């Protein structure tokens, strides 16, 4: 890796941000945001996600906000007030009390930034006041203190999980916060004072040349072991033009070719070396490939994304969790699927085909597919996005579609088309 330039301190220090109340972004400024940034409640793979605060000063080079032209918004601002946001969440047609997994501020800010944290707690406490017991995923890399854990511990109904993004990267061009002990200190504090809150080491992004050397991997695993987190979840990096360009402009080598990907990249070899490093470490903290697997296993629940429908994901999962998922995994009947399409207000003519471990659909779009997947705890796939054996739903960079797999994709298209024709009969 090339020598690191001397960087100014992270924006959070430069801007002197203090826990003052956030401002609501003026309407004319909101009108200039990318529609995805303006989307306050939307489905993501790991849950229905509330994002009414936009802006982050942490400057992580691979940040997803690059994709929506928001990376330069360093000061968090609200799109609506927090009480309005909670109403929008619970009134959302895909929100089901006690059932729908939720995510908080996982798209456009960090929920433990000084200005954002009061809103994180306000949302959690309002959901709790309503007696809602939904799982809530909260992803952070910032300061979490003992008093924060005590406050989380006072929640009676809502079930929070803290996921600490910690990659072992020490290149400040990629992660300015990596030069501090902030995240490791937070993991330690959270795990030591977790009460009913679950604590996960979110090992990401893992990228060849950045943090895949044996010492760095062993260091991350050691943090997990020493702190006694409930689980480790590992994953790769979103390889898109915007963040790759940003990183390359800083002199950071980005190891993948310029075929941009809609899913995270984690080549098969890298997956194998992560699993091997974990096995070699001998630690007892379980390792998962999927966020919802780590979260649900920590709560002793079956995975709400039904990943057992892709059984090669589960070879590292503890046997008692596999048993839980196996017992829960049940394909919806065609009537149940149609009823769910209607309940959520989706196109009732959506073609679908229930197969072993997944439902094949066409043109539902991610937002609707994820709502159905969470509802049934069963994988719902788009026919045009093939799941390649052992790519684990990740980008196909590092995997090659064999002629047989190309055939399988063609066959899936044909099966779905045939089932739609059959429905027309
Ligand atoms: S059994 Fe499979 S689907 Fe269930 S939590 Fe484990 S890895 Fe995930």
UniProtKB/TrEMBL annotation:
Q: InterPro entries under this entry?
A: Aldolase_TIM
Superkingdom of the source species: Bacteria
Q: Could you tell me what this protein is called?
A: DNA repair photolyase
Source organism of the structure: Sphaerimonospora thailandensis
